[in-house]
Amino acid sequence: MNTEHNDSPQPNNVARPGDMLRQAREQLGYSQIDIANRLRLRLSVINDIESNCFDSEKISTFTRGYVRSYAKYVGLDDVAVVGLLDDYGHSKPKAQEMQSFSRRTNHEAHDSRIMGLTWILAVIFVGVTAVWWWQNSHLDRDLTPAVDVANVEAPAPADNTSAVVEPSATTVTTETTSTDAAATDITPTDVTASNITPAAITTDTVQTPVVAADTATVIKQVAAVTADTSTTAAVTPVATTEVEATPALQLTFAADCWIDIRDANGKRLESGIKTAGQTLTLDGKAPFRVRLGAPSAVKIEIKGQPFDLSRYPAGRPVTLTLP
């Protein structure tokens, strides 16, 4: 089982991490199957670690994490055991591979700030235009009823006055015809004519409340229209903000799988071993950098759309950039 697979010879005085882990396991009385079940790893992975077979085609991406978890479980110093990987020739991956991704992230962040400023200016422009339009339309509604009231009120006193004067003129004609002394009967006519003024004054006095009532009705109508406009303006933003959010990334696990997920800013959203039947929903800034230990055990949905993982080997870890 424990066969050396490395092509290059190693110094005899350098302790090998696989041997240390195997000896600690045997002292505790654990089998390789016990360790594999406890760490939720395949038995072949445990065998490769104890055999110091760190094949880059199989587990190089997750070697340090596997060795660290193994060392902690059997009671060894995980920092010291992981440090032996460097002495053994399994150096830590260089960070230069992420330079292009970092430049892309910085460029996207710069574009996002420019777009944000553009949207803010657009919102301010639309808001100023809407306020200007509302003020002008409100002013037009206020002026139009006032002009209509003036046009309606002006003819009313003249019509009522004519109605009052006509009976007085009829009275004067009747009294003049039925009297023999024309000079003597002029006085009642004058008196009747003098009575026209109170009638006209009374008519004007009565007409004033009618005009005032019409004006009050128009003002109430304008206030009702303004209230309806304000209600509509208040309701519109609420309807705009009612948008159901869809998760940016959703993972469903059919079997145990180790994952490491980061967003475009490099923030780690989730990491560790997930069990079968577990569902993980994540939100963050795309694109996402997803590492999967067992791609065949995972179903991925991006904003509700399934992502095809069938083209990736079932037993080998993969690194994805989504979407």
UniProtKB/TrEMBL annotation:
Region (Disordered): 158-178
Stored Pfam families: HTH_25, RodZ_C
HTH cro/C1-type domain residues: 21-52
Keyword flag Transmembrane helix: yes
Record's keyword annotation contains Transmembrane: yes
Gene3D superfamilies: lambda repressor-like DNA-binding domains (1.10.260.40)
Transmembrane segments: 114-134
InterPro entries: Bact_Cytoskel_RodZ, Cro/C1-type_HTH, Lambda_DNA-bd_dom_sf, RodZ-like_C
An example molecular function term from Gene Ontology annotations: DNA binding
Chain intervals with Low complexity compositional bias: 161-178
PROSITE patterns xrefs: HTH_CROC1 (PS50943)
Keywords: Membrane, Transmembrane, Transmembrane helix
PANTHER family in the record: CYTOSKELETON PROTEIN RODZ, PTHR34475
Protein name: Cytoskeleton protein RodZ
Gene source species: Photobacterium aquimaris
